[in-house]
């Protein structure tokens, strides 16, 4: 793939706009909504579990790194790379959970002061931007994972693709979470911070 080729980016943008338009028009179709929410329940739950496991692995490897370095005075050669890789996986898998919960940065002021079709339009525009970003993340993450498949991570002696694979996998989970959040958006009263 030529990095200056605008074709993939244009395709991602067009697909994002088409998906947003289809969801905007088809949000009232109960079968579509039910199918996306059912798929989301499974994938977001799986992403949350895997992100928690990745955090536990990072914690365990980090703890071992400290113990090995200061208690036994023989630093571990694999623990730092494992911590870094586990944290990358945790971040990109956690992205799906954050998108589904609506916990990412939103257009709060515009959303709060708008109603009806304007509010739904803002939500659709935010979804289109999010899907575009996730499409780019998937495309280039997939490309990079393929490019580095024959390189090894120092200390772990596994393919570098395992680290880069977090990008397309996390983007795929996040797309489902973003779609479900759009379809399942409910009017919530903002909580005041005490």
UniProtKB/TrEMBL annotation:
<keyword id="KW-0812">Transmembrane</keyword>
<comment type="function">
    <text>Part of the tripartite ATP-independent periplasmic (TRAP) transport system.</text>
</comment>
<comment type="similarity">
    <text>Belongs to the TRAP transporter small permease family.</text>
</comment>
<dbReference type="InterPro" id="IPR055348">
    <property type="entry name" value="DctQ"/>
</dbReference>
<feature type="transmembrane region" description="Helical">
    <location>
        <begin position="6"/>
        <end position="25"/>
    </location>
</feature>
<keyword id="KW-1133">Transmembrane helix</keyword>
<feature type="transmembrane region" description="Helical">
    <location>
        <begin position="162"/>
        <end position="183"/>
    </location>
</feature>
<keyword id="KW-1003">Cell membrane</keyword>
<feature type="domain" description="Tripartite ATP-independent periplasmic transporters DctQ component">
    <location>
        <begin position="61"/>
        <end position="184"/>
    </location>
</feature>
<keyword id="KW-0472">Membrane</keyword>
<feature type="transmembrane region" description="Helical">
    <location>
        <begin position="46"/>
        <end position="67"/>
    </location>
</feature>
<protein>
    <recommendedName>
        <fullName>TRAP transporter small permease protein</fullName>
    </recommendedName>
</protein>
<feature type="transmembrane region" description="Helical">
    <location>
        <begin position="87"/>
        <end position="110"/>
    </location>
</feature>
<keyword id="KW-0813">Transport</keyword>
<dbReference type="Pfam" id="PF04290">
    <property type="entry name" value="DctQ"/>
</dbReference>
<dbReference type="InterPro" id="IPR007387">
    <property type="entry name" value="TRAP_DctQ"/>
</dbReference>
<keyword id="KW-0997">Cell inner membrane</keyword>
<comment type="subunit">
    <text>The complex comprises the extracytoplasmic solute receptor protein and the two transmembrane proteins.</text>
</comment>
<feature type="transmembrane region" description="Helical">
    <location>
        <begin position="122"/>
        <end position="142"/>
    </location>
</feature>
